[in-house]
Amino acid sequence: MRGGFFSNFIKFQIFTSVLLIYVNELYCAPLSYFGYPAPNGGDLFPMSPKGAPQPLIPFLAPSPLTPFTNSTVPKLSGVCPFNFTAAESIMGLTATDCFTAFAPYLANVVCCPQLHATLVILVGQSSRDTKLLALNETLSKQCLSDVNQVLLSQGANDDLQQICKIRASNLTEGSCPVKDVKEFETAVDTSKLLESCQKLDIVNECCSQTCQNAVSEAARNISSKLGDLTDVPQLSDIAEDCQSIVLRWLASKLNPSRAKEVIRGLSNCNINKVCPLSFPDTRHVAKKCANVISNTSMCCSAIDSYVSHLQNQSFVTNLQALNCAAALGMKLQRENVTENVYNLCHVSLKQFSVQAGTQESGCLLQSLPSDVTFDKISGITFLCDLNDNIPAPWPSALQLPASSCNKTVNIPALPAAASGEVGLHMKHHWNYLVMLLSFVLVLC
Predict the structure, then answer these.
(1) Phi, psi (5° rounding) for residue 434?
(2) What whole-number distance in Å separates Cα of residue 402 and Cα of residue 214?
């Protein structure tokens, strides 16, 4: 294959009438995790006497564009100030991003960031009428229930609160001392804030931090209402709660679509700094690979087995994959694995993400915010990067988080959009492959 690190993408067009999702008995979630009703009262995952899982054929999700006014919309509480009709497009996109079967696997990059952004937008837009940038505890519970019901009616996973760790308190002011719009606008240079964020450059923001700095400054200004916070142990919580207030104010001044782009752009700056995967005990790998490796085959078998279990967790972005490779490498180094086993065992970056198809091609998502799309013809669609088998870099003694901003770190070439070189997109031919279900999205 030719081209740069991310010059080849795969476009998943998942036709729900033929999609097969295999779930391993030992390592994958039970049926209830996917939220599908079993036909005729039976189990969608009937197990043979030997325990071999049978394929699941998911049902077609309701269209995310279903009008909120039709008879299928669940009955709402009637007391929540959210204008769901005005936010129809954002709610529909959120339901698709959090589509029932895929929500757990797209949670950290797509679904949960979009759900968080949606809640910020709903509170912000409602403040135009309420003049408040937060809900009280009672309204928070009722509004969160309403949001869940609307999303569920459009095909979203019914366990989003657990998956995305959403609580009713996320809609309140938390520990931030300001929630009144007038008080906020008195304490903050709103012109500067709006100028810095309304035209957020999604490609360069994570490096320039133009909007991030403006949000942080505004949050400090309103948190100062509490007085001297030098010795306050909950300082980080106060800062986070006040930043939520700032984002809600921004969402009240922008249309929902633009507000979504700003909030998702800011959240991705944090998402790409970390590895979202959890690493179980590596002692078995260390035992086979530590010090001088006497049996390369046994070491690589242990590495392959360990990494294959990581692939059951989540889709990750290209930058997250770099951080995951570094995190696992450093964990192994602490257990006396001194040789570059990534090179020895041909471990590539795409192996840290969910694998797609019989070719076991790892699906790396873009480092920029992305969404899932749905239509009745092609079904669920999202873009995955099939890179050129870039080897996972073995971490050095001073490992820094992967970043397209740090030009001194020797990491594989980053996607053009993430490094600010937008023009490169026009120079390359992007190859899109359609995944019909002769390819299988292997989640286990």
Answers:
(1) -95, 125
(2) 24
What is the reported pTM? 0.77
Rounded Cα distance between 257 and 192, Å, is: 21
CA distance 433 to 151: 30
Cα 147 to Cα 57, 123, 125, 181, 346, distances in angstroms: 28, 12, 14, 23, 45
Token reading at 1: 């294959």
**Beta strands per DSSP E along 224-363:** 316-317, 355-356, 361-362
Average pLDDT, 10 consecutive residues per value, the chain (444 residues): 37 36 29 28 31 29 38 76 91 93 92 97 96 96 95 92 95 95 96 95 92 96 81 77 97 95 95 93 93 90 93 91 94 93 93 72 84 78 72 78 62 42 27 27 34
CA 134 to CA 132: how far, in whole Å?
Answer: 6
Nearest to 116 by CA among 159, 84, 160, 76: 160
Q: Please tell me the distance from the alpha carbon of residue 422 to that of residue 203, in angstroms, as a whole number.
A: 8
Rounded CA-CA distance 146/71 in Å is: 16
> Tokens 């809609």 appear where?
171
Give the C-alpha separation, 181 to 24, whole Å.
Answer: 51
pLDDT value at residue 118: 97
Each domain of the chain, given as residue ranges in start order, spans 9-21+275-426, 25-55, 88-271
Alpha-carbon span 412 to 5, nearest angstrom:
7
> Burial level of 399, CB count in 10 A (0-12/13-18/19+)?
middle
| Buried/exposed code over 143-168 (b: 16+ C-beta within 10 A; e: otherwise) | bbbbbbebbbbbbbbbbbbebbebeb
Taking the C-alpha atoms of residue 208 and residue 197, their distance in angstroms, rounded to an integer, is: 12
Q: Report the number of secondary-structure helices (H) and strands (E) in the chain.
A: 16, 7
Residue 56, pLDDT score: 25
Question: Residue 25 has what pLDDT?
Answer: 28
254's tokens: 């922008």
pLDDT at residue 213, as a whole number: 96
CA distance 419 to 302: 35
Residue 8 phi, psi dihedral angles, 5° rounding = -125, 120
**CA pseudo-torsion sign 302, 304, 309, 313:** positive
Q: Three-class SS of residue 350?
A: helix
| Distances in whole angstroms, Cα of residue 306 to Cα of each of 194, 216, 285, 300, 316 | 47, 40, 8, 10, 17
